[in-house]
Design brief:
Distance between the termini: 53 Å
Oligomer: single chain
Shape: elongated
Order of helices and strands: HHHHHHHHHHHHHHHHHHEHHEEHHEE
Radius of gyration: 37 Å
Structural class: alpha+beta
CATH architecture of one domain: Alpha Horseshoe
CATH class of one domain: Mainly Alpha
Helix content: 55-70%
Number of helices: 22
Strand content: 5-15%
Amino acid sequence: MKKCLSVLLLLITVFVYGQTETEILYKEAEKICNQENNDFCKAYKYYKEQKYDSCYVYSAKALRNLDKNYKGKEVLNYIQGHSAIMKNLLKQAMTNLQEISDTSEYRNLKRFSLAYIHLKNRNFKEALDNLHKLEKEESRLSFKYRKLTIHNIAICYIHIKEYEKAEDYLKKEETIVKEKDTSDIIMSKMEFANIYYNQYLDDKAIPLFLESYELAKLYSDLRFKKNSAYNMAIVERNRKNFEKSLVYYQEFNKWKDSIWNRDKIWELTEKDKQVALAQKEKELLVKNEELKRQKLIKWFIVIIAIFCLGVLMLMFILKQRQVKYQNYISSINKTNEERERISKELHDGILGKLFGIRFGLGYLQIEGNNKIIEKYQYFLDELKEIEEEIRDVSHKLNTPLAKQDNFSALIKKLLEEKSKIAKFEYELNIPDFGKLEEIEESLKVNIYRILQEAIHNIVKHAEATQVSVTISLEESTLYMKIEDNGAGFIYNNEQYNKGIGIKNIVSRVDAIKGKLNIQTGINKGTILTFYIPFKKIS
């Protein structure tokens, strides 16, 4: 049983189209855009600029808004399908291309694109269907595209094991190629070898594999080197020549891993040029050799200089990042040390004194009526609650914010606590809660303090029954919206100067280079919308 051999499949790129149909499409699009300026023209502009994300968006928008009989609909379907292919959205591309009629002026553009999709998905029979339709209209194709069509038909037949048809098409390709370059020769020998080898015609196949391997060694294209070495490894393994097979496998892996440096690649390119010159002008070989050698040295020096400069720049950038990170860690450590100091002061000092006072008051013999005794017990309970609150604050201060809980949980906990105090219902929406954990720790602290101050203002002034908090992230901006149905207020410069809560919020927003929008009015509730730039943790 033959093992799988490597075949160089020339996938038809999305640019390999009949020139005539491409020109017709361009002329139609230009004609439409000379008369109007809309989403169609934006999509076409981005298509020509090869900005396929924008082209995809605007062509989709245009297709949604235009009527069914719009004259540029097929152009839009093609350029959106083209953009979808470039974004690897092959299913969407298929949908767009099938909207183009088989009698359209762009029918071969459609067929080339469909063939590309089927080849990429290894649906060879479907690819053949489109390639054969192109073959029937070869008069509309240039020589180069006729050759590619015939070649890929042959490759499809190899993959579906119809070797006689594959051989016929490879021979047909040879008849239309008058002057072959090295790549054509290597490819032709390799593909004929594959056909014969899969039919167990080793006497014909193995010499062709060897010839393609030897030619590939002299050629610069790494694909040929890799595939020809792989084929020889398979052949020798099947012939039980395991030592030779191992050598070929090692060479295959060398090319596959692409370990060669730039000066070696340049040297191989120069050798290819020398071979070409030797074939055409043998008498000038000696003079050109010296000239090329000098040129190679200059390029080598330039490449080494660029490489060294790049290494120095990289080292500088890494050093800067290291210093920045060390400063950040140092700042965090100092903050945590200060938090720990305050925590100890609260726990060992104030909390101890309060406990001593409560303990001493507990032993007092209070006499009086029931009301006085109840009041006495009430104050003891209040002191105990104050101790618990101080203990909780001390614990939180002694634990870095990031380790207390995840950020989303901290926000939810804040809302739960305040809702019980102020008797309001709350709604928390954080669609990207996972991404929220990736922002910088210092920014988390500021966002939390802003939210804490805003909720405090609601509890203190708004008398709200409904509070909604929404936090979302888009690219490099964090959006936070805090909304309540409370009493509201009149917001102006005078209120800004007097309201400490609002001043604190605005001050924090300015410190983190954010923006704040306030919508409020008497008995209209309040909406605070924050736009805050952020960076992910490095």
